[in-house]
User: Fold these one by one.
Assistant:
Number 1:
Amino acid sequence: MTERKAALITGGSRGIGAAIAERFAQSGWDLTISARGLDALEETAARLRSIGGRVEVVPADMTDEDAITALVAAHNAAFGRCDALVVNAGMGVMGAVADFPVRRFDKLYQVNVRAPFLLMQGMLPTLRATAGDSGAAKVIAISSITGVYPEPNLTAYGATKAALASMCETFNLEESTNGVSATSICPGYVDTDMSEWTKGEDAIPAEQMISGADVAAIAYAVTELGRYAVLPQAVLTRSGTNLHRA
Ligand SMILES: NC(=O)c1ccc[n+]([C@@H]2O[C@H](COP(=O)([O-])OP(=O)(O)OC[C@H]3O[C@@H](n4cnc5c(N)ncnc54)[C@H](OP(=O)(O)O)[C@@H]3O)[C@@H](O)[C@H]2O)c1
């Protein structure tokens, strides 16, 4: 009997993270999902358990290093393996360089870059052990198209997402020979709570945005790649004339 696969997904309570969790649950994976809000996590976990598989819920704030350490320990204690680490939890703040408060820049960096780094580092022994001598384990980082192409008023956010993508690239140089590789997925606007402010008739109708399921399809496809196949980056744009815009 083959062992069940396991993933740790941050920001798994809603939006893109919940869509990825659902896609993985449909394929029989065990999951740890994390976010700050316990109620939303429990609600999503109940839905995922009805699809099948074990789901562990671990609340953690990505600005809290001790909470990240505890999240890694909880996932390892529950499943003892990690076939996919999905670093998805993130925050967005708009604002031009001219008057962007530096404390906001610091928080963005903590959540969008420092936390993914700590998670990649903390989970590395488990990822390597899961890959073993012939298998594969994947890190899937939800970056953004704003980390690839410039977008007005998203200087700080875009910089954090470019940093995340860069981390994946270098991680591959260091770890892919151990069977562990990383992919940054860089979508334009996805129909979630985070993009709420830009929806509407005068802006971008929600139904014309990328769906969480679209992002989840790419994330799951990455897990089907073998040990010797590395996808450093996947840019996912909206249709129409905005191809290289969020
Ligand atoms: N939506 C878009 O248009 C879009 C496009 C490109 C990339 N992205 C990226 O995709 C990722 C997911 O975004 P989304 O659209 O799914 O957003 P969302 O619907 O707002 O969900 C964000 C998730 O992250 C969690 N989270 C937020 N801040 C956190 C923190 N400090 N510590 C721990 N968990 C935290 C949230 O739960 P709690 O609030 O309970 O903590 C929630 O589970 C983000 O990295 C975002 O930058 C989004």
Number 2:
Amino acid sequence: MKIFHISDTHISDDKHFNKNALEKALRELNSGPYDIVIHSGDVTESGRLEQYRKAEKLFKGIDIPFVVIPGNHDKRSGGFSLYQEYIGEANGVKEGGDSVIIYVDTGVPDANIGRVGMSKFEMIRDNLHKYQKKSIKIVNVHHHILPVPRAGRERNVLSNAGDLLELFLKMDVDLVLSGHRHYPNVHKIEDTVIVNAGTVSGRKTRHGEANSYNVIEIDESEIKVTTQRMKSSREVNSFPRKESKVFYDFGEREFRIVQVSNTFISSLTESRLPNTTKFKHTHYTNAVDSINNIEADLVVHCGGIVEEGISRNYELADEYLSRIEPPIVYTPAGRDINYLGYHLFQEYFGNLDQSYAEDDIFLQGVSSAQYDSPVGIVGDTERKELFKKMNEREETFKGLFLHHNVVPIPHSREKGLLEDSGDILRKVVDENIDLVLTGTSSHPFAAKVGNTLVSNVNALSSVYQRSRYGNSFNLVDVYNNAIVISEINSLWGNRRLLGIWKRNNSND
Ligand SMILES: [Fe+2]
Ligand SMILES: [Fe+2]
């Protein structure tokens, strides 16, 4: 199957639209052979009648199957009804041979954010079930699922990207196509290739990027994505399809990391009012018992140590956390550095950016917290220093830990996502960092992006948690040939597997 993938045409009569670029791309398309054209939205610049008429005319020459969805720009000026009149259905399913394409409108009228409402979410899920046997399953959405680098603030992602991501991974979607950010980017998460197109003919390109389109070739053994820039440079990414997930020989266990977050320690006794604390005391004490009995080499606390950064909480946290026997490294959440927390954190627990090095493992913490804000950011300067530091290390297994999320987490909205998550994710994948541990959004999730395993942990002992399995911590077991991550319930100590992944340097 050979796909011609374009996005963000931004057709109009004004300076926003580069007609020559679109015509050039359409000429390339006609010199094909291609099986299908997929457009990931923002057909027009502002959803106006003359723009839709122009789009209709420009697309008339396409004589192979064409799948197109609206973007946020197409829903401006009340343009959605015109979209349906001139372009077609905004949602649907295109079936052909051994492939199926599910295309979904993620736009919200007069807004830049994306959303997939409940009925559309069910439509996607039902169709993925219905077409489960198809060997090529593709989803086309305008807004990106994984954060895109060099995009500035990651604020207008799909608000329920985490739920969609979980669904796509569970249902073995092969390819997710999107646009919107006007910056080409390709990731592979588990067995799903995520392709973000640049803009094919919009003038608003980012970072001096040229207009571009993608050529995607899928056969039994690989998915090959060629990003073709108008100024002739091209970039090719190839990914093997459906890697084997069956292992027989894990080898020896090299080390065991306990990953915790959101202990939310706070005083229980000083108030005469009914108990208003968010700290679950019994969950905490039981979890500490489990941690002390599983031969962990290290505990990584991904932030949310105290409920609020005030003295009496820190005093108590110091006492409570000293009951954990293995060594601990910490990284702060916003709440840890609030009020006097910025000083208290350092007084009781040490540096904001801590690290751990032992034998062949190196873990570096990076503070993503901001004073008086739940929003996370690493920032350009810190990111550069961080990767410089990582590159100087000789260890063969390298990891990062921070509070905020670098991928969207199921059953939460984007509020835990780091503002520069796109940059961090791109960098950890490009640098082959083995492991990233994060600790917000209060839901466990683990998935491999490129060669980087990303593990998020639920709250250990805070009332704010979203998992039906209850508060928990993660156990990250690194074997010679595999990494096994499981979740352990704080209160009861029962264990649930989150996944098994092959080690990057595995010789198995
Ligand atoms: Fe756009
Ligand atoms: Fe857009």
